[in-house]
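As noted in the main text, all predictions were made from sequence alone. Below is one such record, for ceramidase.
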Amino acid sequence: MNISENSSIESSSTYETPHSRSIKYYIFVTMAPPALLLNSLLIFYLVADRTLRGTLHYHAVLALLIVTFLTNSIEVPRIIHYLHLGIVLPQTDLNCLIWQCCDYLLFSSVNVLMCWTSIERYLFIFHRNLFTTARGRLLYHYIPFVIIIVYLVLFYIGVIFIYPCDAQFDFSQPLCGFPCYTTQAVISFYDLFAHSFCPMCVDVSLNVVLIIRVLYRKRVGLLQQQQHHHAKEWQKNFLRILFSTTLWQIMADARTVVTSHQNPSDVKHFEHKLDTNIGYWSPSTSSIDWCERNYVVTQYIAEFWNCISSFSMCILGAILFVRGLYNKLETRFLLSSLGFAFVGLGSAYFHGTLTHLGQMFDELPMVYSMIVWWFILFRMNDSKTIKSIIFAIDLSVLFGVFYGLLWTYVHSLQTFVLVFQAHMSLMVIGAIMKLIYLYRQPYHHIYQLKYIIIVYIVLLISAFVSWTVDQQLCETFNNKSPFNPQLHAWWHVLGAFHCHLGIVCSEAMRLLTIKYKQHKSRNPKQPFKPENNIQFVLYLGLPYVDYSKETQTPERKIQ
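Prediction:
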């Protein structure tokens, strides 16, 4: 490895000003000594007290305190030294590698240990029998700690010291810049996912589940009946531990967000040689630029036809939403229609500006809408009102909300184009398979639904072909052909009709399901004829479920 040719003082990029560095320096100098002192006292208190030292659930706290002690005694002094001088000393490759390794190792250790602390806390409360034997304590308590530490040490030594890559150090930056392995997409993504995203998701989800289960068991009286003397202890520490976990997770996630945005991915262009026009929203900050040439029609809209065609989804979604309100449909269908309209708005914003924020508004509503769509399909045959003892939601709703928040978080860090496209493809394919499965049920088997599903799938295939051809033949359309068919805009229009038919189909199946259950409860011996229990109407050439003859319920149920 070679030292960067740039001077340590005359860096090409300025990451700190003397004023900001001075403020940070005095903050660290003021806070570091008491932090190190308190950290040492806490470790001494847990180690010296025989009772606390022998209590299993304090071992995770002790491990976290040791890691933070190493951070305060190794990392913080190096940061203070850098802030004081404005450069990294000594200016050697080995010094930079050691600092990078220590920083990444200690940070990831806290993330993973916090995750394991949440897992172990859950096991202590609800599966305490796992730790009653010496073998159980070895398998479920001591070995995981050893595996975590050994794995992280070997991983970061391997990727920072051993992995062959061209390291360029900038001694004017903390850590001498980013480790060179972060420029390798696969390793960098694995590091970010395995040591930041995954621990965060497990930690948050287990905390949510833990709160719900504890409140539930406390309410029904089980927590007091089982392991009574442990219940009081956990009631004292429960909120305190959750607060500290949440606080650290917020701080760790903030660092992950900052780190990921300091090293953004390149933009994927389909016609980078042709897009030389400068418009109102220039330069593009999205991670993908589609085939339509930018700012050709007007300087205020980057991709004119892609933007305008997106409003077809807004119009059809708005019609479905208004009809749903008028016919007092269940909340799930109102959310689905509203999400459909918001997908169109987000798509118009994205193609009109080609900004990172616009891309977020384009892609995230797709995920939200698919979550609602999956909920509709997989709860199609459920006729009961969901009322949890604690909250008016059930597990599927909780999972959907958590999954949506997770994708929002992940997408705020990095717009993974291929990962997002693969994810959406799997969600769409899974939904189609479930839709076909539902149609095969006898009380959904009518010829109108059969034709709607066939057209629904044909439209999806046609839209996908348009989307693919637009990318593969982009240069041909813009260079050699006198006419660009704007196939990505047609993808929007075909996709709008496709989504419309999907929502109408699910409304029809839901209505038939409810009528079938009502029929079985009133006339169990008479066969149910689905073709006599539903009607469709055409409006602007598109099918809709006819609710004009239905008796409306006085209230909508959130299911």
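Strands lie at 2-3, 168-169, 268-269, 288-289, 536-539, 542-545. The two ends are 60 Å apart (CA to CA). These features were considered when defining construct boundaries for the mutagenesis experiments described in Section 2.9.
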